[in-house]
Amino acid sequence: MRILQLHNRQRARGGADIQLEREAAGLAARGHDVDAVIVETTAVEQAGPVRAGVAAFWNRDAVRDVRRAIDGFAPDVVHVHTPFPVMSPAVIRAAAARGVAVVATSQSWRYNCASGVLARDGQVCEECVGRHLKYPAVVHRCYQDRLLPSIAVAGSLSLHHSIGTFAHKVHRLTALTPFMRERIIAEGIAPRRVVVKPNSSPDPGPPLDTRAGTYLFAGRLVDVKGVHTLLDAWRRVPGDLRLVVAGDGPLRPLVDEAAATDPRIDVRGWLDGAAVGELLRTSEALVLPSEWYEGLPVVLTEAFAAGTPIIASDVGNFTGLVTPGVDGVHFRVGDPAALADAVGRFDAEADRPAMRAAPGRPSSAPTKPRPCWICSSRSMPMPSPRPPRDRGIGAGGDRGSGGDLRRVVALAARHRRPLLRVGGAVLRLPHGRRGARPGPDVPRSPRRLVDRGRGADQHDARPVPRRHLRRPGARSRPERTRARCSPPPRRARRCGG
Q1: 151 by DSSP, 3-state: which?
Q2: Average pLDDT of the chain?
Q3: Mean pLDDT computed over 197-215
Q4: What is the pLDDT of residue 384?
Q5: With contact defined as beta carbons under 8 Å apart, do 118 and 194 qualify?
Q6: Cα separation of 235 and 17, whole Å?
Q7: How far is CA 329 from the centre of its chain?
C-alpha cells in the first residue's frame, strides 16, 4: 500500500511529530511505501501575519503541493496527522477531490478547540464543543492570547465545519481514546466515521524489578500540566521521597525556586526520548497532575510499555486509561493535598511489584495479565461504543478474516477496483480517479456512487443512475426545461365598459 502523510509541524517538537515518525518507520518496516508533505509553521509565519492568517483558512501553496504529491506518488491513502494551524484543512478537500481515501488522526483537541487544549484560565472549557461557529474562541482570545490569530484559527475551524470538510471529506477520523471520540462526534461527524486507534510506543523490554525510588514528572512546564499542584503537593509529602522533573517551559523559574528550597526535587531540564525512557524504567511511578483533558501523552504510553505505575488526576482521558489498584492511582484534579495523599498511599502499597508488570506482561504476583492496547508489540484495538455493522467484506466478524482472502481478491479482480482496509472496514475506491488505478476495461470518467449506509461508509460497487439521486419532490430535467422555456401566462383583460 502507498500512504501519503500530511502534517503541520509546530514550533516546538511534540508528541504528534514523534508519532508521525514512528508510524512512518513502522509502515515502511512492513513493506508499505510512505511519503510525506510537511508544512512548517514558522516558515509560513515569517511571510507575515496577513499571509499566515489567510493560510489558516485556505493554504493554496499546501493544496498545490498535495496535488502534486498525489499525482506523482499515486497514494492509496492520504493520512492527515495535523493540518492546523497553517497547513489548513483545505488539503483534505484536495485529496478527496483526487479520489484518494482520506484518514485523519486527532492528536489533540484541534477539531473542537482553537487552542487545541479545551482549557482556558487554568480550567476545562468546552464552550466551542458542538458549535460550528467557534466565536467563543475569538471572544476569549484563546489562540496565543491574541485577537487576530484567534480569528484566523477559529474562523478556519468554523469554515470547514460548516462546509463539511471533516464530516464528508474524511473517510475515517481516528480518535486516540473513547473519551476523545465522544467529543469529535459532538461536532456533527457521523459515529460510523470515527474509530478509536491509540498511539503506540516501542517495547523497551521486561520491566525492572529494582527501582531508584524516585517519582518522575516529564512534560512541558506550563499551567495546564498541573505544575503548581505538583510543587504544592510535594511540600506536603512526608519522608525523603524524591521527585525528578524532566521538562522545560515558562514555569521553569518556579520549579528551580522550589528545587532550591527542597533538596528532594531534582530538575533535569529538557531531555531526549532515550533519557526519558531510561528514567521511566528506573522510577517508582510517573506523576501526571494535568488539569486539562490531555490526548494520549507519549510519556503515558511509554510508562505502560516500561511497566511503570501512574499517579494521575481524575480528569478526561486519565479516568479510562489508568485503573486504580492495577496500574496506578487517581487523585482529585487540582488538589495538592489529594496528590500528596495519593503519593503516600502508593508508597505504602504492598502490591507495588504487581503494578510494575506492564499491561500484557506476566506479573510475578498470581494475578491475571491484562491485554495491552498501547504497547506496539502487543497492541489490540479498543472497542468502540457502537461497532460498525457487518455488511461488507472486512467490516467485522469473520467475513474479513485471513481465511476469506481469496474471496476478497476475486471481488477486487471482478470490479477492477482496489479494496482498501481502513479502520477495520474495506473501502472500494471510486472509478476513474487517479488514486484508484482502474483496469483497462473501466471507464475513465468519474461515475456517481451512492453510500447505502453500510455502517463502514464504503461506496457501493454498483453505479447508480443519476435519475435515482434526485431529492424527493424535485423535478426532472424535462420538467425544468418546460418550466423555464414556456412563455408566461397572459393576464385577462378587464372590460372597461
Answers
A1: helix
A2: 77
A3: 83
A4: 36
A5: no
A6: 35
A7: 26
Q: What is the DSSP string of 435-465?
A: TT---TTS-SS---------SS----SS---
For residue 433, the 8-state DSSP code is: -
* Single-letter amino acid, residue 57: F
Q: What is the reported pLDDT for 480?
A: 53
Place of cell 494520549: 296
Phi, psi (rounded to 5 degrees) for 407: -65, -40
Question: Which residue matches cell numbers 528514567?
Answer: 279
Per-residue pLDDT at 412 exceeds 70: no
Q: How far apart are CA 278 and CA 283, in angstroms?
A: 9
How far apart (Å, rounded) are the C-alpha atoms in residues 417 and 429? Answer: 7
Question: 3-state class of 394 per DSSP?
Answer: coil
Given a contact cutoff of 8 angstroms between Cβ atoms, the answer to whether 372 and 358 are in contact is: yes
**H helix or E strand, kind and range, residue 66:** helix 60-73
Q: Is 215 left (phi over 0), alpha (psi -120 to 50) or beta?
A: beta
**Which residues on adjacent β-strands are paired with residue 244?**
216, 266
Residue type for position 328: G
Q: Which residue has the cell 520549579?
A: 255
Task: Quote the cell numbers at residue 380.
Answer: 489490540
Handedness of CA 26, 28, 31, 37 (dihedral sign): positive
d(CA 26, CA 29): 5
Q: Could you tell me the sign of the dihedral formed by the alpha carbons of 269, 274, 277, 279, in that order? A: negative
CA 134 – CA 432 distance, rounded (Å): 38
Greatest CA span in the chain, whole angstroms?
Answer: 115
**In one letter, which amino acid is 193?**
R
Contacts for 193 with CB less than 8 Å, ≥ 6 apart = 167, 170, 171, 172, 173, 457
Predicted confidence (pLDDT) at residue 218 exceeds the cutoff of 80: yes
Indicate the DSSP class of residue 383.
P
pLDDT the model gives residue 425: 46
